[in-house]
Amino acid sequence: MCSTESNTELRPTPPDPALLLELKTRRPPSLLDRAGCETWSVDFSPNGAWFAWSMGHGIVWVVAWPLDSEEGRDGHTDRADKSFSCGQQVWGLAFGPRPPSGAAAARFAKTAPKGKDSLLLATGLENGVIKIWNVFTGNAVFDLHGHEGVVRDLVFPQNGSLTLISSSRDKTLRIWDLAHKGKRVQVLSGHKDWISSCCVSPDCSMMASVGRFDRMVCLWSLRSYTFIRNLTGANQKTLCLLSSCDFSPDGAVLATAAFSGSSWWIDLWDPYTAEKLATLADYFEDYGQNQISAIQFSPDGLHLAIVTDDRALRIWKPGERRMTMQTNKDQVSNGLCCKYHPQGGVIATGTRDGHVRFWRAPRPVPTLGHLCRSILRHSVSTHQIEALPLPRRILEYLTYRNIPERLKTCTSSDEEDWES
């Protein structure tokens, strides 16, 4: 087991004003600066009560959140910090939703604490195996076999079902039914090389995946488990690599990140029409010299977090020609992954040396226009919006087609927007 005292060091005095705290792993001298210590994945549980990160060398540490809470640290085993030894390098991890009541939950009753629901944690390993853990007991529930390469990303659709989606360097995605211990699985093929990342739309109807070397951005149906389309024009450069993707919380925008030898860029897409809404490299020339490792939309959809190899974190508000926030330059510990807390306000980043940093994220009050658009777009497609008898300006706002115009006209002191 890991403990705060013996295995990690809490650094509460940050050098960067936005840094809340940092978890540093204490390693034996023989493991310092050796491959295998990277934090490739971090995650918060759906209710925000737990945080997990792959600290390198096959170890995953799970801690109760917030970290300074004394609840359950002495005498309350349900809330005690836990570690999971996976035996292989951990490349991807994800918390699962709490099982729904009924037969699905009963399948895990033997491993759940008495009177408690089980909280699952999936870990994707270098040898292609996915291990499923019960967070409350610290026990392994079962393993999933089938991938023939590194399991790079894991996603649980947050619709209450026990479904796990995995992407791998074997060029496939797999959809596992954990209610049947993964014995029912759908295999999706189409990528020509490693799959870097995958994400699921908020309504759980679509999934997107990006290939690191094949320059493909694929959309898939999670209702029929079929290929929908490849978003063409994602990369015109022959040597570019795709690294990450994420849906906005309302599902109306898909962001994809790519980089080449000398620049990076982020494309914003309409997943319903396959239209490219904007490319950030066209407006952020000063930021284009470093590799993007990960991107993620904030829970309110107002910001996009960007992790690059020269700074731990950048945060951008779509439509602005400046970064809302960026951390100090960091040439010592490059960022590899990021994850927002479900309630926002905090974002965690994992580093190449196995550490985790927690940053204070912007938390503005959403406008009425943004709230109305988010609610509407969560359940209404672009084609349905376009059929409504609305003024052109409102249609452009609802379909996010106003972003390029705002990028051309707005400045750091001028944030005009129709809803304000």
Structure description:
Mean pLDDT is 83; it is low at 1-6, 72-76, 108-115 and 411-420. A 5-stranded antiparallel sheet has the order 1-2-29-28-27, with no helix packed on it. 8% of the residues lie in helices and 38% in strands. The chain folds into 2 domains: 21-27 and 37-70 and 78-104 and 116-189, Methylamine Dehydrogenase, Chain H (7 Propeller); 197-216 and 226-351 and 368-410, Methylamine Dehydrogenase, Chain H (7 Propeller), CATH 2.130.10.10. It has helices at residues 103-106, 368-377, 382-386, 392-398, 403-409; strands spanning 8-11, 19-25, 42-44, 50-56, 59-64, 82-85, 90-95, 120-125, 130-134, 139-144, 151-155, 163-168, 172-177, 185-189, 195-200, 206-211, 217-221, 226-230, 241-247, 254-259, 264-270, 275-279, 292-297, 304-308, 314-316, 323-326, 335-340, 346-351, 356-360. It is globular and about 60 Å long. It is mainly beta and 420 residues long. A hairpin with a 5-residue loop joins strand 16 (206-211) and strand 17 (217-221).
Using the 3D structure, state the CATH architecture of the largest domain. 7 Propeller
Question: Mind telling me the CATH class of the largest domain?
Answer: Mainly Beta
Radius of gyration: 21 Å
Write the CATH homologous superfamily of the largest domain.
Answer: YVTN repeat-like/Quinoprotein amine dehydrogenase
> What's the CATH topology label of the largest domain?
Methylamine Dehydrogenase, Chain H
Strand arrangement across the biggest beta sheet: 1-2-29-28-27
Helix content: under 10%
